Amino acid sequence: MLTRLAPTDSRFLFRPVSSEFVGVLKQLQPDDWLRPTVAGTWRVRDVVAHILDGMLRRLSFHRDGLPPPRPGRPLSSDSDFVEFINDVNAQWVTVSNRFSPRVLTDLLSTAGSELADFVEQLPLDAPALFPVSWAGETISEGWFDVGREFTELWHHQAQVRVAVDVDPLQDPRYLRAVLELAVRGLPHAYRNVTAAEASTVGLIVVGRSGGRWTLRRESDRWTIWEGAADTPDAQVSLSEDAAWRLLFNALSEVEATREAHVSGNRDLAMPLLASRSVIV
User: Fold this and answer.
1) 4-42 confidence digits (pLDDT tens)
2) In this structure, what CATH number is given to the domain that contains residue 12?
3) Quick one: 202 and 83 in the same domain?
4) CA 169 – CA 159 distance, rounded (Å)
5) Domain range spanning residue 43?
6) In a shared domain, residues 53 and 155
7) Do 26 and 135 belong together in one domain?
8) What is the C-alpha separation between 14 and 174, in angstroms, rounded?
9) Could you give the CA distance from residue 116 to residue 178 in angstroms, rounded to a whole number?
10) What is the overall mean pLDDT for the chain?
């Protein structure tokens, strides 16, 4: 049975995830901060700095009303937007090389606490600061914008944990919320995929945080539902670990194909393995 996705309330998840992450950072040795991560060329210290940057931006732009910086030139395409975001991110990571691991940790601890204070008092239906572009939205609901911020915190702290061989967060609520938010980007990933009316693509994520979701073709668009169709035209099954790595750009196409169990119409399933819930 398919049901519409309800809003995902991530407001009270920021504080415990941030707090546990700070605990991990305080235990790292100097060499750990220089380990490579799945985030491209970024080392552990670069990923930590990026998390801090996101927190400070959210506090500055959303809580304090500071206007976000304007691009130096008009953004006329998605690639222009991606380039702009990448440049903004790279600027902070470069500056952060002046900060010691202790300074980065202390700043992240303070910013994480203040960010939790802020989002916890936001009404669930508060206006969004930014639309969620990876879901193809030009206007988003506030809970989705805040949720997108939570997915950033969660998946980047997960990247660090993988890099330094620390166990993942144990509470399944955190990854479950991340997955509930991330699958909302699937209809946008399928925007150029044509199929017969009422065609369905199922996603099964196996694990304590997992679930079942279904893409359904309706008229000229795809929609996302919770639950499983009786006879999906295509189906993809992933472990919860592979699912977050896929959706947050930490699996190559070859790795994704190896990790996924695909049944039914393979051509209809493959765009799911190329979907991402981040700006790329």
Assistant:
1) 999 999 999 999 999 999 999 999 999 999 999 999 999
2) 1.20.120.450
3) no
4) 12
5) 3-170
6) yes
7) yes
8) 9
9) 17
10) 96
Q: Is residue 278 part of a domain?
A: no
Q: Which two tokens stand for residue 273?
A: 């393995």
Domains contained in the chain, number:
2
Quick one: tokens of 122?
């936001």
Answer yes or no: do 24 and 158 share one domain.
yes
> What strands lie across the sheet with 261-264, from one edge to the other?
3-4, 221-226, 211-218, 200-206, 234-239, 261-264
- 238 phi and psi, to 5 degrees? -140, 150
pLDDT digits (tens, 9 = 90+) for 87-139: 999 999 999 999 999 999 999 999 999 999 999 999 999 999 999 999 999 99
- Rounded CA-CA distance 16/4 in Å is 28
Is residue 234 classed as helix, strand or coil in its secondary structure?
strand
Residue 17 belongs to a domain: yes
Same-domain status, 147 and 269 = no
Beta 211-218 vs 200-206: how paired, if at all?
antiparallel
Report the DSSP pairing between strands 234-239 and 211-218.
Answer: unpaired
Contact 95, 113 (CB under 8 A): no
Instruction: Answer yes or no: do 237 and 106 share one domain.
Output: no
| Predicted structure pTM score | 0.95
Separation CA 11–CA 27 (nearest Å): 27
Q: Give the pLDDT of residue 40.
A: 93
- Taking the alpha carbons at both ends of the chain, their separation in whole angstroms is 33
